[in-house]
Amino acid sequence: MSGISDVARIAGVSKSTASRALTGGGYVSEATRQRVLDAAARIGYVASTNAASLVTGRTKNVGVIIPFVNRWYFGEVLEGVEDALLACDYDLTLYNVRPGSASRSRIFEHFLARKRFDGIITIGLDLSPAELERLRSLDRPVVSLGAQVEGASSVAIDDVAVSRLATEHLIGLGHTRIVHIGGGRSEDLHGTVHGRRLRGYLDAMEDAGLGAQTLHVPSEMTLPGGYAAGVQVVSNLRSRPTAISAASDEVAVGAIVAARRTGVQVPAELSVVGVDGHEYAEMFSLTTVEQSPREQGVAVVELLMDALEGRHASPTTLLHPTRLVVRSTTARPRE
Amino acid sequence: MSGISDVARIAGVSKSTASRALTGGGYVSEATRQRVLDAAARIGYVASTNAASLVTGRTKNVGVIIPFVNRWYFGEVLEGVEDALLACDYDLTLYNVRPGSASRSRIFEHFLARKRFDGIITIGLDLSPAELERLRSLDRPVVSLGAQVEGASSVAIDDVAVSRLATEHLIGLGHTRIVHIGGGRSEDLHGTVHGRRLRGYLDAMEDAGLGAQTLHVPSEMTLPGGYAAGVQVVSNLRSRPTAISAASDEVAVGAIVAARRTGVQVPAELSVVGVDGHEYAEMFSLTTVEQSPREQGVAVVELLMDALEGRHASPTTLLHPTRLVVRSTTARPRE
DNA sequence: CGTGTGCATGGAACCGGTTCCCGACCCGTT
DNA sequence: AACGGGTCGGGAACCGGTTCCATGCACACG
Q: What's the CATH number where A41 sits?
């Protein structure tokens, strides 16, 4: 495999001159630079970032830690991050730490310590104090998306607000028996996305004077999860709610499928609102609060680049905009 | 940041001895080895793979090229690959080449040339001759999943066979007006997954003497794609088909949603069969031919490890097993 | 008792780049 | 004609590891 020495030899210059010509530092005459560039192009030379990083300390590589790649939100974010990093000439090393997976500690203890990247992006991850400590000890900038990492810049949406907005939409239509489908134990109303979305629902109900009749069916943030919860809600014949505020679009769609299957009309008998702007939302005419995970991925990369280039050192938190999109799964309740 | 020299100093030995103790090569007395290991553990030392790779030539890193991360099949595969690589102590560098994206050539020309990985895994990718050439010039083993790369080992399922099996199931139930929803232009019956699945349908129809009445509605391999195609099929009132052979489960589910929405009973009026074993299949009681992408990911990593360790040099192709799972979206046609 | 063998260790070269430092050269000033 | 500052390019050190080679030593053997 060809190295910089080969380029130098072909161009008839020394290694150092070749390096200067290629990286653009120091004085090189235009003529020599061209000769070096030509030589490099001719043999298809690309510098080994590995070797360069040894002396420069910049690896041109970023570690991304993510709990799922297979859920819509995370997949979108990852694609956005990938694109943005590529545009900045960075490679992306992926660490998939599935919740409950044994490999999680191995990643933090072993893999992250290999000094292989210039920075780290964590996505939707709640870190333990030990993990935080380990991350900090690497002495590389850390930015996070969708969850707060202490002392790190981050991009997120206001999860409480989106869920509140969705619920208020239902209340505004005249609903009072509204159930929230989603995760989150009631003790944990801040630490997780699940929890914050439950919080938003509770706040909206409270503010509307409906604090006494809140309902919460726990569910995984998946379509099958929403389906199971939906079955439960719909089969509750005595006092069936007239509306569902779902913690995510996948949950909402699952609930809709469950309702239709049982012969319950949406939105005539049951209104459903979600959160996300999932690619399925349009197909199901789902009313939802849209966020744009792909753009959030791009934004978090920008934040990391700022940190890498020493711009605005103090941690900032960027709140990404969201908006209510009313389609046809929500309507006034029947008298 | 601590280096091997620090470890050596603390343990009171030379750099070379420390290196031998840590990597396990050459002679080191048990006592010294322990002292070195203790010193390393004490300061949380992990060798920089970067620096080591410079001399050993092994980077402990694998490049993965994938067209989507956001589609079920690809997401599953990626998670399987990640797990398996981690278990072998390899990092994963992700290259997401979305079809039609301008960055594709940049990845092949620039990023892949950085000599950063020991091997490459391509997933569901049809390479142009130039790309193939570039890959080969890197002089690193390449293995592929779900598509043939000339001269490379690969893992795949028999796409023709699965689609044939699904279609034969419908034929076996007595259906004759069967439509295939999926991609693939009829000229391209081998090069792509779309094409091969169309081929399987055509073969099955042919063999059953139904070659004259094949029907094909093109569609993207997504749920919305299937929905759109489903609407088209169902609204064809005069001679509506009695069964759909979908190219994937996502397409199948989309078609089912479309049918139900239009009031067409599944399976009473319309049977639907898919291919994949998607996580949604069970929820929709979908009859399908299951494959296991996660396991395929693990298998392709094994193949790569074989190549990296010089075992069985000649390219092998592994056909992964599949099986028909009959649920309740298929039934005999009504008289 | 001299010598050969095998284990244990340290010194130094090396991987492929970047960068520091220094000398050569050119050109305009004094 | 001597001098100084700005350009240009080469030699060598360095990044953090691994590995080759030489050396020291203990022990067994003839």
A: 1.10.260.40
The CA-based diameter of chain B, rounded to the nearest angstrom, is: 88
Residue B56's nearest nucleotide, by CA–C1', is D18
Which nucleotides in chain C lie less than 7 Å from some protein C-beta? Answer: 7-21
Q: How crowded is residue A235: how many other Cβ atoms within 10 Å of its Cβ?
A: 11
pLDDT category at B137 given cuts 50, 70, 90 is confident
**CA B5 to mean position of chain CA atoms:** 43
Span CA (A141) to C1' (C20), Å: 28
Q: How far is the CA of B270 from the C1' of C30 (A)?
A: 101
In a domain? residue B81: yes
B283 plus B303 within the same structural domain: no
pLDDT band (50, 70, 90) for residue A123: very high
* CATH number for the domain harbouring residue B136: 3.40.50.2300
pLDDT score for A184: 62
Assess if residue B73 is contained within a domain: yes
pLDDT band at B239 (very low <50, low <70, confident <90, very high): confident
Confidence label for B16 from pLDDT (cuts 50, 70 and 90): very high
* A 68-107 residues inside an 8 A Cβ radius of B: 68-70, 72, 75-76, 78-79, 82-83, 86-87, 91-96, 98, 103, 106-107
Note the pLDDT tens digit of each residue in B257-304: 999 989 899 999 999 999 999 999 999 999 999 999 999 999 999 999
- Name the band, by pLDDT with cuts 50, 70 and 90, for residue A187: low
Instruction: Say if residue B89 is in the same domain as residue B150.
Output: yes
| Angle, alpha carbons B107-A113-B36 (nearest 5°) | 135
Tokens 């939906």 locate to A230
Which domain covers residue A27, as residue numbers?
A: 4-47
Any domain includes A329: no
Q: Give residue A95's identity as a one-letter amino acid code.
A: Y
Give the pLDDT confidence of B127-136 residue by residue, as tens digits.
Answer: 888 888 888 8
Same domain, A151 and A300: yes
User: What local confidence, expressed as pLDDT, does residue B190 receive?
Assistant: 65
Which tokens go with A75? 């997949």
Candidates A22, A56, A69: best to mutate against B (most CBs of B within 10 A) is A69
Please indicate, yes or no, whether residues B131 and B208 belong to a single structural domain of this protein. Answer: no
Q: Is B96 helix (H, G, I), strand (E, B) or coil?
A: strand
Give the single-character DSSP code of B126.
P
Answer for the pair B106, A83: CB distance below 8 angstroms, yes or no. Answer: no
Strand partners, A162: none
Average pLDDT, chain B: 93
Task: Tell me which protein residue sits closest to nucleotide D16, measuring alpha carbon to C1'.
Answer: B51
**Average pLDDT for residues B85-92, to the nearest whole number?**
96
Gap between the Cα atoms of B261 and A284, Å rounded: 10
As a whole number of angstroms, the longest Cα–Cα distance in chain A is 88
Between chains, do B96 and A103 touch, taking CB under 8 Å as contact?
no
Q: How many CA atoms lie within 13 A of A200 on its CB side?
A: 29
Shared-domain flag, residues B140 and B193: no
Helix (H) or strand (E) holding B319: strand B317-319
A1/B115 Cβ within 8 A: yes
Gap from A110 CA to C12 C1', Å: 31
What the block records as the tokens of A91 is 């490679």
**Are A233 and A88 within one domain?**
no
Say if residue A205 is in the same domain as residue A143. Answer: no
Strand order in the sheet with B91-96: A317-319, A153-156, A142-145, A119-123, A61-66, A91-96, B91-96, B61-66, B119-123, B142-145, B153-156, B317-319
Q: How many domains does chain B have?
A: 3
Same domain, B298 and B151: yes
Say if B276 falls within a structural domain: yes
CB B64 within 8 A of CB B300: no
